Amino acid sequence: MTGLKAKKITEESVSPTGIYIHIPFCRAKCHYCAFVSRVCGERTQQEYVAALCREIAAAGGDFAVNRVDTVFFGGGTPTCLPVNNLAEILRQIGESFRITEDAEISIEANPGTVNLQSLLLLRQAGFNRLSLGVQSFDDRVLSEIGRIHTAAEAGFSFTYARQAGFDNISLDLMYGLPSQDLISLQYSLQKAVALKPEHLSIYGLKLEEGTPLAKRVDAGAVLLPQEIEEEAMYDALNEYVAINGYSRYEISNYSLPGYECRHNIKYWTFKPYIGFGVAAHSFNRSERYANTESIVEYIAVNNTGKSAERIRERADLSTAMGEYVFTGLRMTQGVCLIDFRNHFAQDFLQIYAEPLLRLKKLELLNQTEQKVFLTPLGMKLANRVFVEFLP
User: Fold this and answer.
1) Rounded Cα–Cα distance for residues 374 and 332 (Å)
2) Domains of the chain with CATH codes
């Protein structure tokens, strides 16, 4: 693994951990985005990188002894930072944790923030998976949602990534966007599939309160597709990616065989992960905890050697089981009944007999001897299913 110090692991019985790194910087805030990110100057960025490396170096407890088999740099737009900063953070992870030789090392990037040289340097530093935030190949739609790139730049970025040696590339697309109709979405799908990425993430727009787009929609300045149009987009995209060889493994994620995102699967299957950076979340299979959402506070507390953690909670049994079920049901493989029993010492079929019966009658859920999983209709109406398992 070039550029990343990988340590040999012998404790094969220890469950591997994932690491998430939050980079909260963007060149411009997208109109629909509610993530913790902002436009910052170089000084703040450099102070943040130093604080982040200090937090990683100081990490201890259960996570420090575990193997780490996935690392994911998300944001924001990680590639807003200079490549030498990203490489520095990755080196610090390698020095502080036991990284497996076959670890999946992902980084999110937006077209317009990378070029051939920067991608070559990222690959050399040790990143082996790239997630490009394209969202649409329709310039009119891109303009409406405040993206900084054009469709042509998205294509160039993908080509550069291939030239740089990335053989595991994911493209992000969205549907239900302003100025988008079925024809626009189909065009974007065709352009994306023609590039032959290994992975596709395709999300429906979720209008977040307080975002510029939500305010414009509320004011009547922007119209979104009607529900019937959005449903047609959903049906069309699932049909199109399937006939082009992409298997759906999670509600919004599709891949060629063997290219599922190993890091994100940890979130859906109750596996441990630790987050570093502002607003980063962690999970050790019994507790969830998160850092402050203030960049200023995050930098300040790390400068004094204190913890940036601001939230820590241990779910009661019914809440933990509910979380386990509705995250597991996001996966097409569903919830394994034996795994549920092993984890909670409870019988799934007894605890959830009533909601299971209701959802099966509505043809939203299906069951075999080994697992419970969403039907195609259940995938479309997933939130209707998930609420049934909340305490």
Assistant:
1) 7
2) 17-268 (3.80.30.20), 317-389 (1.10.10.920)
